[in-house]
């Protein structure tokens, strides 16, 4: 299993500013995933972060808007840049590790972001 | 495109049984997951199916039919604490997880 500490748990930010979300994992993992979850909607993958290389972004997400750092195998940050109210959402980091059956996804507690 | 469908919301009575369905169309299939997500919390793993049939785990069971692109999560002896959203997710041919929007389950006394 994996335990992920994510912070901040919530924040209210002014439009035009940036927020950096941090995730710390209790064990080394190759890939870390960053998701966005808007109310009543599915988890949308923003990017996959590998240690020592640039993150891989999904369609509709760009590095300038969501820069990611992955300095080592247990830590990653996601920055939401130049925020607008449309960025209000829950942001989740995730890792995948062997669980009771197949490889499972484990999540941080999530960051509830409100942009005003 | 890839698509996972599940009902938006369901209501059931404490002590009863409820079945939450999930249908999927994905590029390849490498397993189906069910996760539980309480309001304001992160999703937590419930079950995993990769072969056709029923997997039972206590009060929860999950069924898979790969030929039909269909799964269900069965919850028995419902308790108030089972009120949550239930997310269906499929791992595709690229081993990426594709998530459904979740089914909000409301349990009434």
Description:
- The complex is a heterodimer of chains A (about 120) and B (about 110).
- Chain A is mainly beta.
- Chain A contains no helices and eleven strands.
- In chain A, the strands form two sheets. In chain A, strands 2, 4, 5, 6, 9, 10 and 11 form a seven-stranded mixed β-sheet that branches.
- Chain A is globular.
- Chain A starts with a strand and ends with a strand.
- Helices cover about 0% and strands about 55% of the residues of chain B.
- In chain B, strands 2, 4, 5, 9, 10 and 11 form a six-stranded mixed β-sheet that branches. Chain B has a five-stranded antiparallel β-sheet with strand order 1-3-8-7-6, with no helix packed on it.
- The model of chain B has no long low-confidence stretch (mean pLDDT about 95).
- At the A-B interface, β5 and β10 of A face β5 of B.
What key phrases describe this protein's structure?
heterodimer, A: 116 residues, mainly beta, seven-stranded mixed beta sheet, four-stranded antiparallel beta sheet, 11 strands, 54% strand, globular, B: 109 residues, six-stranded mixed beta sheet, five-stranded antiparallel beta sheet, 0% helix
